[in-house]
Structures are given as structure tokens and as C-alpha cells.
């Protein structure tokens, strides 16, 4: 069942929650590619996927962008798990009649639900594209020259180990109200990156804005690093 609220379409999931989404591109009946986009940590259905309409028309792309549980207009999921993230995506695809197989494009922290899809519903995936994906620095197949100068490596290692051995500590750190400032540094971006990023609607990544995570977003944060501590896929 689809509902309209605040100009957004919503579906009702099997557990009673509502998931908000928006559709872009060509009509799905005429599409060559049916894609679900999974947003990142501070994303939402209105952001991130910047493909121009002309390109989508030319290639026959139909894309669905949705608010993950607890984001935007979607209901929170108090029982969130890695499996539930994949189930939300599968139910969305079924409600919208995307067919037996569909594509997924994911960005940043939106990649961990996609890893879950690869594990739990691989038969539904026609293809997957990871944009700035989560990685495990312990992967033996990850080239050393790609990570040796990564300034975030030690921080990610600390958070991954904390998620594995002391998960409640990491969740506390994620929702703390002290020192909860967005990092305005642009160290990791090229001039072209900055040009593109600053044109993203609603982007505040370079503003020293205070933010406090609610329980749903802190769960995402925790699952992100907990999953990385256990991920055994070989790239």
C-alpha cells in the first residue's frame, strides 16, 4: 500500500513501519536499469545521487531513493539489524514491482546494508556499485599503497575494535553531547571534489555544526563498525 504524506510516497512494511521514497529517471516500465540507491550516514532520499535527467533518459535509468529506517520521513526500527536493512530493500523492491532482480548503488555508510543484501538476498541482485564504500583495513587483498597514507586509518581501527569488543562504549561515544561537532576539514578532497560537493543540496559537511545522534542513527554507526569487524568477504 502506498501512502502520500508531505509530498512523499511511502510503503507499509511487513512489520507495520512506513518507508518513504522518491522515484527519478524514466518510467520503470520503459527502463533498462532499475536501481535502488542506499544513502549514507547523514544522507536522505533527496540527496547524494546527482545523475542528470538527460543521462538517465539516454540510458533508460529508473532509480528509487529512500529514507532508511529512522531517517527523514521513514519510521524508526527499534529492532534494527543487518538482516532488517536488507529486508527493507527487498520489500521496497517488491512493493514497487521492480522485478526478480534489481541494481543497487550505495554510498559511504549506506554500503553496509548493501553488504547485507549480498549476504542475504544475492539472488535478487542484478548488480551492485559501491561509492566510497566501507572497507576493512585488515583485508589481505586491500593494496597497502591505497591505505598507507590514509589519515583516518587509526581512527577506523579503534572504532572497529571497540565495536567488536565494547559495543556499548562506541554507542555512548556516538551519542555524546560534548565535542559533537562536524569536522569541517577538507583534507580528503580534491578541488574537483569540493566543486561538486558544495553544489549538493543541503550539504553541511564543511560547517562546524553541532549534531547529536538519536538512538536510530547511533545504531547505524554501531552496526557499521561491528559489521566491519566481522566482514569476511574477499575483494
UniProtKB/TrEMBL annotation:
<protein>
    <recommendedName>
        <fullName>Serine aminopeptidase S33 domain-containing protein</fullName>
    </recommendedName>
</protein>
<feature type="domain" description="Serine aminopeptidase S33">
    <location>
        <begin position="34"/>
        <end position="196"/>
    </location>
</feature>
<dbReference type="InterPro" id="IPR022742">
    <property type="entry name" value="Hydrolase_4"/>
</dbReference>
<dbReference type="InterPro" id="IPR029058">
    <property type="entry name" value="AB_hydrolase_fold"/>
</dbReference>
<dbReference type="Pfam" id="PF12146">
    <property type="entry name" value="Hydrolase_4"/>
</dbReference>
Amino acid at each position: 500500500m502506498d501512502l502520500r504524506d508531505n509530498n512523499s510516497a511511502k510503503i507499509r512494511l511487513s512489520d507495520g513501519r512506513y518507508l518513504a521514497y522518491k522515484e527519478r529517471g524514466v518510467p520503470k516500465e520503459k527502463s533498462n536499469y532499475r536501481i535502488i540507491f542506499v544513502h549514507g550516514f547523514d544522507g536522505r532520499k533527496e540527496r547524494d545521487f546527482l545523475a542528470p535527467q538527460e543521462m538517465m533518459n539516454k540510458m533508460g535509468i529508473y532509480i528509487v531513493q529512500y529514507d532508511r529506517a529512522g531517517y527523514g520521513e521513514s519510521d524508526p526500527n527499534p529492532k534494527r539489524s543487518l538482516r532488517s536493512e536488507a529486508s527493507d530493500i527487498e520489500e521496497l523492491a517488491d512493493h514497487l514491482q521492480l522485478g526478480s532482480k534489481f541494481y543497487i548503488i550505495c554510498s559511504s555508510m549506506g554500503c553496509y546494508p548493501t553488504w547485507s543484501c549480498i549476504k542475504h538476498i544475492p539472488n535478487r541482485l542484478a548488480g551492485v556499485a559501491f561509492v566510497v564504500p566501507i572497507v576493512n583495513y585488515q583485508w589481505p587483498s586491500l593494496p597497502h599503497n591505497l591505505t598507507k597514507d590514509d589519515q583516518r586509518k587509526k581512527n577506523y581501527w579503534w572504532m572497529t575494535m571497540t565495536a567488536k569488543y565494547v559495543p556499548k562504549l562506541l554507542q555512548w561515544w556516538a551519542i555524546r553531547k560534548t565535542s559533537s561537532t562536524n569536522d569541517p576539514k577538507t583534507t580528503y578532497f580534491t578541488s574537483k571534489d569540493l566543486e561538486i560537493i558544495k553544489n549538493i543540496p543541503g550539504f553541511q559537511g564543511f560547517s562546524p555544526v553541532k549534531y547529536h545522534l538519536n538512538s536510530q542513527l547511533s545504531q547505524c554507526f554501531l552496526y557499521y563498525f561491528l559489521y566491519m569487524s566481522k566482514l569476511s568477504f574477499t575483494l
